[in-house]
Amino acid sequence: MYSGGYTGKVLRINLTHKTTRAEPLPEELARNFIGGAGFGIKYLFDEVKPGTDPLGSDNILVFAAGPFTGAGIPCASRMSVTAKSPLTGAVGVALSGGEFPTELKFAGWDVIIVEGKADKPTYVSILGQDVKFHDARHTWGTLTFDCQQLVKNELRDQNVRVCCIGPAGEHLSKMACLVNERRAVGRKGLGAVMGSKNLKALAVRGTDTVAIDSAQKYKVGRSELLQAFKASPVLYPEFSHHGTPMVTDLAGALGVLPAKNWTATGAFVPVEGIGRDAQATRIVGREHCHDCPVGCSQLKVAQTGEYAGILTEGPDFETVYSLGSGVGVDRVDPIIAADRLCDELGLDTISAGVTISFAMELYEKGLFTRADTDGIDLRFGNDQAMLQVLRKIAYRDGVGDLLADGSRAAAKRIGEGTEKYAMHVKGLELPGYDVRALKGHGLGFATAYTGADHCRGYAFQEVFGVPVPWHVDRLSTDGKGKLTIWNQDVRTATLDCAPMCAFLLDMAVPATACQNTATLMEAVTGLSFTPEQVLQVGERVNNLAKAFNVREGLTRADDTLPERLLTEPLPAGASKGNVLSRADLNKMLDEYYALRGWDVRTGVPTRQKLTDLGLAYVADQLGV
Amino acid sequence: MYSGGYTGKVLRINLTHKTTRAEPLPEELARNFIGGAGFGIKYLFDEVKPGTDPLGSDNILVFAAGPFTGAGIPCASRMSVTAKSPLTGAVGVALSGGEFPTELKFAGWDVIIVEGKADKPTYVSILGQDVKFHDARHTWGTLTFDCQQLVKNELRDQNVRVCCIGPAGEHLSKMACLVNERRAVGRKGLGAVMGSKNLKALAVRGTDTVAIDSAQKYKVGRSELLQAFKASPVLYPEFSHHGTPMVTDLAGALGVLPAKNWTATGAFVPVEGIGRDAQATRIVGREHCHDCPVGCSQLKVAQTGEYAGILTEGPDFETVYSLGSGVGVDRVDPIIAADRLCDELGLDTISAGVTISFAMELYEKGLFTRADTDGIDLRFGNDQAMLQVLRKIAYRDGVGDLLADGSRAAAKRIGEGTEKYAMHVKGLELPGYDVRALKGHGLGFATAYTGADHCRGYAFQEVFGVPVPWHVDRLSTDGKGKLTIWNQDVRTATLDCAPMCAFLLDMAVPATACQNTATLMEAVTGLSFTPEQVLQVGERVNNLAKAFNVREGLTRADDTLPERLLTEPLPAGASKGNVLSRADLNKMLDEYYALRGWDVRTGVPTRQKLTDLGLAYVADQLGV
Fold this sequence. Notes:
Helices cover 41% and strands 13% of the residues of chain A. The first copy, chain A, is of the alpha+beta class. Chain A has three domains: 9-205, Aldehyde Ferredoxin Oxidoreductase,  A, domain 1 (4-Layer Sandwich); 243-423, Aldehyde Ferredoxin Oxidoreductase Protein, subunit A, domain 2, CATH 1.10.569.10; 435-561 and 581-622, Aldehyde Ferredoxin Oxidoreductase Protein, subunit A, domain 3 (Orthogonal Bundle), CATH 1.10.599. The first copy, chain A, has a six-stranded mixed beta sheet with strand order 2-1-6-3-4-5. In chain A, strands 8-7-12-9-10-11 form a six-stranded mixed beta sheet. In chain A, strands 13-14-15 form a three-stranded antiparallel beta sheet. In chain A, helix 2 packs across helix 19. The interface between A and B is medium-sized, with 32 and 32 residues.
């Protein structure tokens, strides 16, 4: 049995019946799924029946920390939130750092499972073992930062940590996120799930500590990690100063920074106007997640015109893309303003930005007129229009209602062949890497169980040129099946399940992440792990998540990319002329399925594979 | 010597030399000035030489709590901030509640005196006896709520309390205020004084308790106060639910709610659109100052259109006037939005609103064109224009620069006989009571040492009809000299010096405030006081403040009212036709000066009076 790391307790909150129950965390769960998204997906598969309405009371919302969270391991103040996604209908997983995850552990819980639906707006306080339901009708309608403050004041404790939704979640926008402090649990519309349950916020506070099994091994494992941090040529010298926006210039140089709804990748110049150094001129400080020595999170204040004085944490690279180049906005300050607005509204910046860029393309093509946009001049580069529409989306006002459920749903409603302009996979809008010149990324976006997701198997090898586990050619499709599986499994095990910060892997321990995790698992929890066993947890979770999607009816046809990327060559820049054809994709998919041990024709996991992973019961359910 | 209440320590912070010094709090100061504004004005008179530039390094900024602050006395979590006002050139005093004042006492300090000017943006942390200067260049430009959060995060303590300035203070707008939590230390441009010193914020945190001299007497005195609270027909049943906006309807009914820069008092209908019940539809919660059982501070969230989701604490009645009826805005939500914006910018709502209404009148009269307003359609009732100009004021952008120093300065710059549209006394913009039908208020605004100030002698008898200390006729000038002196001295002693909350006096203990204060002074501090001695402290402070102004060159001619109020009858409503003529004002002034024991011709305190009050040294300085 584990003797450290885990609190050993799962809190089940039923909003329908206003009941709470503490359950033990089974050792088998810990051993086979480690924590975080592993736990979330296991509960989701086991408890949410096929065909469940994501916004109905039968969906569940699972908050899960991991064994390292709160244990003093750097970069491990992370948690996953898991539900069936209303945006994709598939597994919805998103992660977040900050202080909330650690506080959850200090309160004595590894996992919180939220079930049912409250009859009126509610928030739940979890002060250690003291769990209470609070009427939240008065907080309904508040922006996320105000809401957090209100809850802290009501609980008379400024050290309570609050994770909440904003107006976007209340109005069930399928692009709504959760926000704790200034951090989003973004993507996949998990904020709408929370909103559909009438749950405005969770508030946690605790005073427990996290036990460590072996102080001696812990010291060694932690020290190895910190040494790797110091040895990284990027992590402290560059990343802790600039955070993810440092990627902007690189993406520009490679010609893979998407612009104007992916019609102008490579043609958005100068990238420098929104890139690393332009962002740096706005930095006023940084924030560290609990126990993080890096502090990649930049606080920035806009300086010009009507945006002067607006502060945000971020914008991260993805937001620089989605609310910058993607919508044709070429200045830093409106991006800062839009990022802040999204955080306050509780709106995922990527999906919201890409959905607006979709509408902008329609507008420029004449498929959308001012009559459709409530009179807004929705051309690319109109930052004020972007801000107006972001608000409208969160409140489902006019054109905002049309766009509130993401680009796929909007295209369906608009019709007239607009689906081809909707840049999504499985309903999830694309992150900021043009896969026509990053082909492993293409396969990753096509196969990730959450849809087009930069956090579910990011091919850092293609972007940074890191030859781990081997050298790759970003323009080639060769070996990308194998690469994607490695990326998905390593990242799932170490970043989603442990869970630890993605940047740790990209910049500090790319080759040894499973070894580090195994060492720390043994040190912290007392459960022995080999690196291979850690990697297998990643494989297990990817298989289980895939099985969930298969059970929901998703097929090989859903493992695809937007038509534009399969047919139109990159228009300009360093990667001009590249394309990722349907044949390319099919070739990569075949390799991927075969190496996964899945049926190549259907993309469905085989009984053999599932049984090897201890998931025979899943094979039964899939009827394979 | 006092043995409770006071910490006995004054912290002197010199920003020029980056030095700090702890000084004892003399018993004589406590006995003669009690605390709060009494202390502030004494330090100001003694340490700031005549002719000092209010925005120069020789001005001082005095933060002073009182003996009851943090001692568990209800409604006493108050502090005053005092400096020479850049807006008026006279004594600048403003008070605020919340948690900061109590925290200051818990940190071990009665008073903080800030001197000099930092060479670069700075904030100062006062964690008990540990006082540190911090580089604040990175926080320069931040909005007040963001700034507070940044400082808390940097000090790694969410329970630190922060009082700071926003962009308005940084840009030296003479209408800038200080903000702690959601509360303003408003009026008189004290935020500009802080900005001129390059002081972005003070952060305090303490763990001391406040000693009580006699537990037995304390129990009795506190209980008397709480009994009076319960006995009030207004305090709990009405005021704790609606706060100051309940006054809106009453002012409307009396025909004294000023509208459209005082051109339309009585003609602004329906008042209900912005009044008590309209406000109540937006309430989502309330905030209590430390140890306050009333909680008059309403949290409201706007619901409509582009304002939906915006939360503010308030707006208080004065803001409902200044950013509502005063500028012709007849809906609640834009007032909420403007209130929030002012809090974030660190801008006094009254002065800013009245200055904008002044500009609106010029615009409507054709004295101001779109060329003057940066193209903004600055007509009465244009809420978007109001919001735009508020921002411009804080950043001194275009027309905002013209208006940033208040209506008097703006009129001076614009010229062309515009001074008569500037609704101020001594440079301080008028609060929301039309004195043409509240004549005691007129005398109060004319004689208050800070300029037109509803907090320096508010004639609640005229508004609420409370016959304390005697019945008055609001339309008559008879006896208003005596009434004003009583109001000024009682309020100064109990509300400004103790300091305690104004609403306590208006609604709970109007007749016994000095008695209550005397009882509590003895119980808490061990210093014996009679009610008459308490009242005399009020008289002493009013004389000393007046002497400061005289020393700065102010004369009887400055104790006046805007020309409009002296010449134009009230245009409409229940008080239609009333006027407060120059003769009326002079009659009241004569009575006032005579009863004050001041020279009736000049309005200057006599040597006799000053000597009686123990202020012979002041008479020496004035040469009387």
